[in-house]
Amino acid sequence: MSDTIYAIGDIHGQHELLLDALTLIELDGGEDARIISLGDLVDRGPDSCAVIDTLLNGIEQGRNWTVLMGNHDRLFERFMRTGITTHPKMRPSYTWLSPQLGGLDTLTSYGVDVTLAEPELRAAALEAVPEAHRAFLAGLPLYAEAGECLFVHAGIQPRLPMAWQSEDDLIWIRDAFLQHEDPFEKLVVHGHTAVEAPEHRGNRVNIDSGAGFGRALTAIAIEGREVFVLEEDGRQPLLP
Hints:
By secondary structure, the protein is an alpha/beta fold. It is 32% helix and 18% strand. The strands form two sheets. Strands 3-2-1-9-10-11 form a six-stranded mixed sheet, with helices on one face. It has a five-stranded mixed sheet with strand order 4-5-6-8-7, with no helix packed on it.
C-alpha cells in the first residue's frame, strides 16, 4: 500500500465525519497511510476547533498527513490576523460572519460569544483561539503534488504553470477550471465546489460532497490514476 495516496474532501467543522474518514483510511492503508486533506477545515459545521486539533495533533505525532489551505481557512486566519471579514471573491453582501459563510459557527466552537459586536467579537476570538491553531492555519500549503496527481483546494488556472498560479486561483477558482475539459499535466484532485457525490471528470476529481451542507465527507484512495471511494463495505471505483 506504500504507493497509495488518500485524500479527504472539505470537512467544514464536521469532526465526527472526519474521525469516520480517518478510520476508513486506516482500515484500508494502515497507520502510516499518506493522507492529503483538501482544505476548508472550518465553518458551517459544529466543531471546527476539534477538526484543527485532530489534524494538528496527528501531524505532531508524526502521521504522514498534509493539510492544504482552503478559502474558508484563509478567511478565518485573516480575520484573526487583521479583523477583515470581506474578500473580493465573495458576494458583496456577504462577510465571513454572514450565516451563509459559517464564521460564527467556527467562533462558537472555540467558546466565543458570537452575540458581541464585531470589535469585541474579534477581541474575544483572539483570547479564545489558541496561537497554535492560528500558526497552523497560516502555514498551510496551497497545493501538493504526489504520484500522478495534483492536490489543491479549488483548482488551477488552465494552461498556466504552477509557479504562475495565485493564491486566489488555488483556493477560490470555479468556472475557468471547472469548464476546462482538456487534460491537465496531472490528474487534479480538488474540492471547493460542493456536489451531491464525488465526481471523476477525466482530467479532475471533485471530492467535496457537501459535508458543510449536512451531506457526506468523502475519503478516497488513489493508485496511479485509479480512484476509489472508501465506504464502510470497502473500496468503490470512481470512474470518469
